[in-house]
C-alpha cells in the first residue's frame, strides 16, 4: 500500500464540540473533599492541608517494609536487566517469581489473597523494581494501576470482586484496553462496538498499544454500546477473558525503550462477553477509566523517582572517579550544576510522590489534580535528569552498556534509561493532554460560576443569572488575591529552625505567586472568554507554574518531616532550598512567557506548513520511512494474523 493510499472510511466523524461533551461528561463533576492543588490554582495557599506531613500507620509501614526487603532481594538476585534488554522479553521465570512473591497483588486486599499495601508502599515497590528493569515496573503497574484490579475495587460488584480479584492477586496478568488505531485522547471517536445480545454483549473492533496485552489473562476493555430499547448505550467497561474465542493478539509492538514491554495490537471478532462482566452501568466506561487514573497515575512518577535516584548514584560515582584538568569532573562548575539539578530534583520528585500517595491513602483530600501534577512533573523532570546524566557521562553516556562491558568498562545503561523514560511523557496522558486536563480542573470554580457567560449556546436569561452569580463570587474572591501571608516577613517561621537553611521564604514565595497565578488566570478568562480553551500554550504555562509551586511546597514539607523524624534533616533542608531556588527561576520564566511569547506567530507558521507554503524547506533530503497509511486500517472483522498471545509458563 502506498503512502498516498486513501484512509479507511469507517472512522467515526465527531465534531470538536461533541468530543468536548464526551470528555466533560466523563470527568468527576463535584469536589466533595478539599484539594491542596485546586486551592493553589485559586490563589489560596492551604498549607494546613499538607503540613504536618501525613504519615502511614505503623502496621502499614511494617508490612510495607517487610515486602520491600523481599522484593529487593528478588531484584538483586533474580532480575537480569541486561538479558531483558538483549532478548526484548521478560523471562517467564521472572514473572512467575513475582507471582510467588505476591507482587501481582500489592494493591489487592488481603481478603482476596493480595498483600494490601498502601499507595505509599506500592509506589516504593514500583520505584525499586523499576530501577532493576523499567519494563517489569510497567508490567506490574499496568496490571494493578489501570488493569482489572483497580476498576473492580472501585466500581465492581461483590460477585465480580470474588470472581476476579483472587486471580489477579496471584496468577492472572491483566491489561487495560482503551486506545484504538485512530483513537487516543479523544475517546468520542471510539469505534470498538459492544452489541447487546441476550445475556451477552458481542465485541468487535481493534485495540492498539495494549500494555500487557501480549501476555494477559484478563482484559479491561472499553467499547461503545449502541443506544437501543432497554440500553442506555455509550462507552462501557467490560472484563474479558483473554482466551475467549475471537480474541487475537495480532502484533507484539516494539519501541525505542522498554524493550521487555509486552505491548500489542488486539483484535476482537464477535467475542461474546457475559453481561455479568460489565463494570458499572452502560455509558460509565470513561468515568471509570478517569477515576481509576486519579491514583493510578502515581505509578509513573514512582518509577521516575527510582530513575532519578539511580541517575544521582551514577552521577556521583562517575564524576568523582573521572578526572580532567587535575580534578574530578564533579568539581568543574559546568558538570557540578548538572549534579546539583539531579540531586535537588530527585528530592522534590520523591516529596511530591510521597505526599500525594499518603494523601491518597488517608482519603481526606481529593487528589485528582495532585496525582496529575505528579505524573506531569515527574515524567518531564525525569527525562531531563536522564539527559543530564548522559551528558555527564559524555561519550560513555551514548554508548550501550553491552558495548561498555565488551571493552572492559562498567556496564552503565545510561542511554537505555533515557530511552526507557521517554515514554512516560506520553503514557497515561501525554504532557499536552495533562496540561489540558489539569487546566480544566484548575478553572472549574470559574466555569461553575461564570461558564454560562461565555457559552454561546446559552440564552440571555441564562447569561443574566450567571452574571449575577459570578458577580457575587468575584466580589468575595478577587480582594483576597491582593495581599496574604506571603508578604509578612515572619510567616511560616517554623520552616526556619535553628541551625538549618531558611525555607520559610520559599513558602512565602509560593503563597505570593499562587495569588499572582490566580490573578493571571482571571485576567486571561476576562480577555479571551470562550476562546480560552484554545489558548493551549497559555494554559500549559499556567499548569507548569502550578506544578512548580506544588513541588516547592512538597519539598519544604518533606524537609521538615525528615528534620523531625530522621537523622538527615539538615541535608534535607539544603536539598529543598536548592530545589526551590532552581524552581523559582523556572517560575519567573514561565510567568514572563504567559504574556510574552510566540503563540500567535506559531499559529501562522503552522497554517503555512500544513498548506505547503514551506515545502521548499524540505528539499535536499531523502525520507527513509517505509510505505503504508499513517493510521492502520482497524475495520472490524475476522483476523488474518497469527495469534501471538504468549501465555506465561
TrEMBL record:
Pfam families: Acyl-CoA_dh_1, Acyl-CoA_dh_M, Acyl-CoA_dh_N
Composition bias type Basic and acidic residues, residue spans: 8-30
Superkingdom assignment: Bacteria
Entry's family note: Belongs to the acyl-CoA dehydrogenase family.
InterPro entries linked to this entry: Acyl-CoA_dehydrogenase, Acyl-CoA_Oxase/DH_mid-dom, Acyl-CoA_Oxase/DH_mid-dom_sf, AcylCo_DH-like_C, AcylCo_DH/oxidase_C, AcylCoA_DH/ox_N, AcylCoA_DH/ox_N_sf, AcylCoA_DH/oxidase_NM_dom_sf
Keywords: FAD, Flavoprotein, Oxidoreductase
Record domain Acyl-CoA dehydrogenase/oxidase N-terminal: where: 65-170
Cofactor(s) of this protein: FAD
EC id: 1.3.8.1
GO cellular component, one term: cytoplasm
Organism: Streptomyces formicae
Keyword Membrane among UniProt keywords: no
Catalytic activity of the protein: a 2,3-saturated acyl-CoA + A = a 2,3-dehydroacyl-CoA + AH2
Region (Disordered): 1-30, 627-649
Positions of the Acyl-CoA oxidase/dehydrogenase middle domain: 175-271
UniProt name for this protein: Butyryl-CoA dehydrogenase
GO molecular function: flavin adenine dinucleotide binding; short-chain fatty acyl-CoA dehydrogenase activity
Record-level GO BP terms: fatty acid beta-oxidation using acyl-CoA dehydrogenase
Domain Acyl-CoA dehydrogenase/oxidase C-terminal: residue ranges: 283-441
EC primary class: oxidoreductase
